[in-house]
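Worked example 2:
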Amino acid sequence: MVAQNVKEVIRKLVAIQKIDEELFAFRREIRQKPEELAQIKLHFDNKKELLHKFEARAKELELARKAKELDLKSKEQDIIKADGSLMQLKSNREYQARLFEIENMKVDKAAIEEDVLKLMEESEKVLKQIDAEKIVVDGEEKKYLAEKEKVDAAVQKLTEDSSGLESRRREVMVTVEKEPLALYERIVENRDGVAIVPIVNNACGGCFMHLPAQVINKIKMYDVLVRCEICARLQYLQEDL
């Protein structure tokens, strides 16, 4: 490749590089937008999960209360039955024993009533938490859906803009020889969208490593494409272009 040809290739690669800088920025944004939305959705899902836990607890308490109420009803029937049997007892000893039995059943009944009361109080507390959490979940859902609409619109716009840049890129690419273009493509993918950089104050514009005079002289000769020994990017002198 003669000097003029190398310079021309560099000019075209620099033109592609400018497009790629925008393209890679768009691609990063396209990736980041859904990631940002995912964080909002995660927060929304966590709130929903908390609401589901409250609702599950409310069902548990309701089932426990109904079971206790059945126990209470059964205990009351036992007391009524035992009370009714007192007049059928023939001895005072049997009578006192039955009274003692009835008294124990009443103690058990009072304990069940206390359990029912506690379950009702806890249920009331959980139901209040459910009402409050429903308001929070509703707000988080609206926030998520509004953000999703914005993100979808932004991604669509970025995708459309990227498509326009891709078209411009292809127009320049067809004018570059295959070998230097293939080299550029490999580097740009491995270096996050930056494949060719200018020399700035005798240092690589990509990794900022100082370059010896012989390397800069080699670049000035423009008989081959020169790559940085550290970051492997292609190098050029802005003033020569």
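The chain has four helices and four strands. The CA atoms of residues 71 and 93 lie 29 Å apart.
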